[in-house]
Amino acid sequence: MKETELVERKIVEYFTKDTVFKEITPKEYADFSYPRRIRLMNFTTRLYRVYGFGHLMTMRTDTRFGMQLLTCSFMPSEGKNVPYLLIDIMLMGKKRMIFVEYYDCTKKQAPQPLLDRIYRKYAELPDHMEKPAWYIPERADYSLIKDVPRDLKKTTLAHVAVDSVRAYKAAAFSASSEDNDLSGLIEFRQRMIDEGNPSSAILQKIFGKEGYELFFNSCIMPTDCTE
């Protein structure tokens, strides 16, 4: 089993444990590739409706040139008073990166001591140097943007990811629900579509501009809680 697949399974397992959930992955998004004939990049997407929270999407990307990617989008679409969480993992050769990104679009922007505790636990990991982007200043201070050297035996990508998911789950399921918190999250989602994000270029090539927006709204950051 590939490392990204193992981490994905752990994330889904820990976030859905002791909750009511179901998989609602649209068939057209479950498995796709780019380019379609050559299949240099293969995508496996799963979408879950997690009752009492909202939605969880995982998208694993395997490439012929050795790079592995995993994206997990935690969308508090029931209006929970918690930040939106996006986890990105990239493995390629000796490079191992994990981004645990929190975007607080709520009205109150309440303190998040559980998330801050995980930040402090892994703060000494080397920071990953990013290129400037509009969304970087929007992140909460307790986001982790880290390189994880392979020779660190006590700290793995799975540790950072699972610890972050545990803390986020505890924060999310103890938070209040406020309908007006969704408005800020929807505005942020539109900025992710219009102003771009690390996956937007390749996904627009696959689905086209309108198809990409539909994929983003219905799979990556859905707000429909009628399932």
Secondary structure elements and pairings:
Elements: H1 3-16, E1 21-23, H2 27-30, E2 31-34, E3 41-50, E4 54-63, E5 68-75, E6 84-92, E7 95-103, H3 113-121, E8 144-147, H4 157-173, H5 181-195, H6 200-220
Antiparallel strand pairs: 1-3, 2-3, 3-4, 4-5, 5-6, 6-7, 7-8
Features:
single chain, 35% helix, eight-stranded antiparallel beta sheet, 227 residues, alpha+beta
What does this structure look like?
A hairpin with a 6-residue loop joins strand 2 and strand 3. By secondary structure, the chain is an alpha+beta fold. The chain contains 6 helices and 8 strands. Strands 1, 2, 3, 4, 5, 6, 7 and 8 form an 8-stranded antiparallel sheet that branches.
In short:
With 227 residues, the chain is an alpha+beta fold.
Oligomer: single chain
Backbone shape: globular
Kindly provide the radius of gyration, computed on alpha-carbon positions and rounded to a whole number of angstroms.
17 Å
Topology order in helix (H) and strand (E) letters: HEHEEEEEEHEHHH
**Class per helix and strand makeup:** alpha+beta
Strand content: 25-35%
Number of strands: 8
Mean pLDDT across all amino acids? 93
Unreliable segments of 5+ consecutive residues: none
Largest sheet: 8 strands, antiparallel
Distance between the termini: 32 Å
Question: Count of helices?
Answer: 6
Helix content percent band: 25-40%
